[in-house]
Amino acid sequence: MQLMKWADKFRKLGVRTNADRPQDAAQARAFGAEGIGLTRTEHMFFGPERIMPMREMIVAENEEARRKAVMKILPFQRQDFMGILEAMKGLPVTIVSLIRRA
């Protein structure tokens, strides 16, 4: 159901949403979003099964420890990105990563 359908004949801008998880993207599509304007990757790791590997990466004292921690979180991130892209069915998705090397 498109909740914004009544505005479609007047608006000039597309409606995009923020979504950090596949279920958020699916809900946005159900509400009529035409894409995702922002997916912040750090929000993907707040869940209880994901937070510890993220903390390991943050406090890693060397590159080897950081890489080991990143390899633990990579499957979660890959799964979430695939789920978000599948939910959006070809619509635009903007992904911003605030995780970077120091």
List the helices and strands and how they pair.
Blueprint: E1 17-18, H1 22-30, E2 36-40, H2 51-59, H3 63-88, E3 93-96
Helix pairs in contact: 1-3, 2-3
Describe what this molecule looks like in 3D.
By secondary structure, the protein is of the alpha/beta class. It has three helices and three strands. The protein has a three-stranded parallel β-sheet, covered by helices on one side.
Quick summary of this structure?
This protein has 102 residues and is an alpha/beta fold. The chain contains 3 helices and 3 strands, in the order βαβααβ.
Pick out its properties.
102 residues, alpha/beta, three-stranded parallel β-sheet, 3 strands
Largest sheet: 3 strands, parallel
Give the oligomer, counting copies of the same chain as homo and different chains as hetero: single chain
Question: How far is it from the N-terminal to the C-terminal residue, by CA?
Answer: 45 Å
Strand order of the biggest β-sheet: 1-2-3
Q: Per DSSP, what share of the residues sits in E-state strands of 2 or more residues?
A: 5-15%
